[in-house]
Amino acid sequence: DTGVSQNPRHKITKRGQNVTFRCDPISEHNRLYWYRQTLGQGPEFLTYFQNEAQLEKSRLLSDRFSAERPKGSFSTLEIQRTEQGDSAMYLCASSHSWFRREGRGCQETQYFGPGTRLLVL
Amino acid sequence: AQKVTQAQTEISVVEKEDVTLDCVYETRDTTYYLFWYKQPPSGELVFLIRRNSFDEQNEISGRYSWNFQKSTSSFNFTITASQVVDSAVYFCALRASNSGYALNFGKGTSLLVTP
Fold first, then answer.
1. How far is the C-alpha of B6 from the C-alpha of A110, rounded, in Å?
2. Residues in chain A within 8 Å Cβ distance of B50
């Protein structure tokens, strides 16, 4: 079973340019997540998909950010008109959700990809 | 709101020493899940353990052990006989059952194990 893959691994761009990242989840994982991690901090949630539906967005996801998961498999994260503050590691994770017993909630584990490191000059 | 605090920013130990990484969490939900991830210099977050709030037993996996204490809202991680390969940043994370599916991470503890 291959893990989560992300492309590109590194991206350097000039301020104002658009960038797009791709994430391929573990096969048959129905949930896919995007996080952002800046230096010295833990990852921060951006958004997640269940199959092809985008179900939750963080307030960190400004209008310049858009994410898609068109067929419920891979996902793309696009940043338009990049700013220097967008420089960060963008992490993708996937999971397979399942319920254990009534009252026990949805148990799942998110498995992360290697990330895409973005530098905006 | 959910919050995870990892008070130790950096820890340095000599190989073969035992080391404990602290994690304190806050949540009002009665059902929640706690996680530890390891992030080596390569950057990829590696899953180590998930602990459900309704499970009672503590976990041991080889040199790794986890101590879950509801009374103090802590989920500490101990590495026994540390090795150089354990050097990494370790993150504790929380997801509450009634608060969506996002993981709330602490700021991480950077562990350096020297020979």
1. 20
2. 107, 109
pLDDT in tens, A37-76: 999 999 999 999 999 999 999 988 899 999 999 988 999 9
State whether B91 and A42 contact (CB < 8 Å). Answer: yes
Partner residue opposite B43 with nearest CB, options A40, A48, A89: A89
Is cis: bond before A114, omega within 30 of 0?
Answer: no
Determine whether B76 is exposed, middle or buried from the number of CB atoms within 10 Å of its CB (0-12, 13-18, 19+).
middle
Distance between B75 CA and the closest CA of chain A, angstroms: 17
User: B44 — contact with chain A (CB < 8 Å)?
Assistant: yes
Whose tokens are 């820890």? That residue is B11
Asked if residue A101 has pLDDT above 60, the reply is no
**Structure confidence at residue A106 (pLDDT):** 65
